[in-house]
Amino acid sequence: MTINMGPQHPSTHGVLRLVVTLRGEEVVKCESVIGYLHTGIEKQGETKTYNQALTLTDRTDYLNPLINNLNFSLAVEQLLGITNKIPQRAQVARVILSELQRISSHLVWLGTHAMDLGAQSAFLYGMRDREKILDIFEMVSGVRLMTSYIMPGGLYADLPTGFKEKVAEFIKYFKKTWPDYGKMLTKSELWFERTKGICSMTQEEALNWGVTGPILRSTGIAFDLRKAFPYSGYETYEFDIPTGKSGDVYDRFMVRMLEVDQSIRIIEQGLEKLPEGEWQVNDLKIVPPKKYQIAVTMESLIHHFKLYTEGYKPVAGEAYSRVESARGELACYLVSNGTNKPYRMRLRAPSFANLQTLGPSLEGRSMFADIVAAIGSIDIILGEVDR
């Protein structure tokens, strides 16, 4: 028997269609059909200036907009040759905000994944605590979701007064409440039965499929770009890489739970490192002048006008950046032909690679009811799958 799940189905976490062939309750074949959320973001990016294209990156993985901003900014900074000129205040702020974004994303994953399997309380707890993180983003950028706050050259604006205290207050609160999430689920026998041994994969299978992030680490491979290829000063932070053994739904759950603990460690170190000073490179051809300067000097007004009408023109060349998002390796490939717009913009989305493992890891070894658990464990975002 062949049935359709989606594309309008709450368990698919987006407009994903699954064509499932069953023999009784056993999954014989599971085929993912994507493309329902295609927006042509890569092509759109090639028709806009670099500053304008930045705003598109928020909309690929809409639960990780700041990390997407960082990924694109690192690639543009390579083209501009300013990678080593980013002020320390901006670098530390990027790390703090990226880890807050990772926690926020994992809270959404945990809440929806648990609710799919019948545990509604975790979702309510997660949304409660995520609101506190979104309040910090709103404090910093004025926007809760699509911030476009991390930009080529540094940050869009300086961190507001009270930012450090606000983040420290949240971390102090969250360190007390976060253990409750684990207790809610790991003490449930039903949770073990729905996740243990489901959708498992070996290290060889994970590498062959090109998966990254928590799914790869759940097989026992300790690969994290923040350690393997550090960026934004991650090499100066102390944190561990949680891993699993069997690569099943339960191990993926545990890896992400432990990742949140490591994000808390990184944020605490970042708050200690956060210096005063500039938050943008000192180059008015790349970043806009301060508002008070525009009203005082004609040169600043000209720089502001030219930056937002024409943008900047990196030398011809190519750049490739990659960062560790909440879902895995997120990469950006840019080609410049010397104009103010990218000649080619290519985004490497971790969800695209991770989703392809769904069918092979279910076929011949899972029941129909296991599909919902498997989808939740992959933590896909269809915005970055279809782009």
What CATH architecture would you give? Orthogonal Bundle
Per the CATH scheme, the topology name is Cytochrome-c3 Hydrogenase, chain B
Strand fraction: 5-15%
Shape: globular
Ranges where pLDDT stays below 50 over 5 or more residues in a row are none
* Helix-strand string: EEEHHHHHEEHHHHHHHHEEEHHHH
Number of domain units: 1
- Could you give the distance between the termini? 32 Å
Based on CA atoms alone, the radius of gyration comes out at: 22 Å
SSE diagram, text form:
Layout: E1 2-5, E2 17-23, E3 26-33, H1 41-45, H2 50-57, H3 65-80, H4 88-116, H5 121-141, E4 150-151, E5 154-155, H6 163-186, H7 189-195, H8 203-209, H9 214-217, H10 225-228, H11 249-273, H12 291-294, H13 298-309, E6 317-325, E7 328-336, E8 344-348, H14 350-355, H15 358-362, H16 370-378, H17 382-386
Antiparallel strand pairs: 1-2, 2-3, 4-5, 6-7, 7-8
Helix pairs in contact: 2-3, 3-4, 4-5, 4-11, 4-16, 5-6, 6-11, 11-16
